[in-house]
Amino acid sequence: MSRSLLAMAVLGSTALITTALITACAQPDKPANTTPSSDQPKPAPAEFTGTLAAPGSGAAVSYNPAAPIGAQLTVKITTGDGSTTVDFGAKGMQPSRGYAVHAHTKPCGATGADAGPHYQNNIDPAATPEKPSADPAYANTRNEIWLDFRTDAQGAGSSKATVPFGFTDRAPASIVVHEKETTATHHGQAGTAGGRLACFTVPFKQ
Ligand SMILES: [Cu+2]
Fold first, then answer.
1. Residues 110-124: pLDDT tens digits?
2. What Cα–Cα distance (Å) separates residue 5 from each residue in 13, 27, 169, 191?
3. 132 Cα: distance to centroid of ligand 1 (angstroms)
4. What is the CATH code for 41-206?
5. Distance 173 CA to ligand 1 centre (A)
6. Range in 71-75, 81-85, 152-156, 197-201 with the lowest mean pLDDT
7. Using 50, 70 and 90 to split pLDDT, how confident is the model at 41?
C-alpha cells in the first residue's frame, strides 16, 4: 500500500469513528448498545377494584343477591407482545359455587343488558344485537375473555385468562358475572351463561 493510500485509509476510518461519535452524542438518551423495540419495557399492569352496589352508584353493580352488595371484585390487566392476561378475583360472593364471568363490550348500566355482548377479537359476522354469537368458532376462550371461577367456603375465588390478542381500536369495557356456574361451549349455546348478576366497568384500554 502506498503512503498516500495508507493516509487516506487512516483518514477514512477516523472520519467513520468521528461520525459514529457524533451520532452517539446526538442521542444521549439511547446508549449505543441498546437493542431497539423488542426489549422495550412493557407497560405496568392496570389493576381495578370495585365493591358491588346498587345500580347507579358506582362502577361495580349488583343486579341480583346471588352477587351480593358489598362483594369486592378485582381485575388486573397485563399486556404482553400480542397477548393479554387478565387476573380476576372476588370476595364476599356466595360460598362454594361457580360463577361464569366474561369481558363485555360496553360499560355497566342500570340493567345487566347495558353491558352489551361479549367482547370478541374476531367478531362473529352472524351475530346481531338480538342474537349474540353462540358459534364455538367465535365464542371460545381464545377469541373472548372468559373468567369463570369457583368460590371457597368464605365466598372468595379467583381465575385467570390469557388470550392471544391485544387492544388497538376496540377493547372490552366491563366484566359481567353470570348466574350459571360455567360458560356453555356447545354449538348454538357457546358463550352463554344465563342471567347477569353483577357488572364491573373496567377500562381495558387506557
Ligand atoms: Cu358474559
1. 999 999 999 999 999
2. 12, 33, 59, 76
3. 11
4. 2.60.40.200
5. 12
6. 81-85
7. low
